[in-house]
Sequence to fold (102 residues):
Amino acid sequence: MATLYRKAGRDREAFDYLEKAWTMQDSIDQAMEYDLLKELEIKYQTAQKDKAIAELQLETSRRNFQIGIGLAAFTLLVAGFIFFCTLSAKENSSCKKNHRFG
Fold:
């Protein structure tokens, strides 16, 4: 359009048209930059949240492992205690039997 105004010798109108076109293009460029920045911000926030979730899952796994180890150790301790109590009771029983017959 500006070219037509220019060819017609209407330089002022050609300049005004170009000025409006540049202003619109600037607005479009700014809107596109804003959209791009928003998209990048969303991707960054999503990545941060994903990282936090992964860290929490890792921490949960570690705690569950530690709880499992603790329960296993406790179970072995109780089983050992029961074993030695049973063994001790059998020995005491045999000692009593030996003293009765002796």
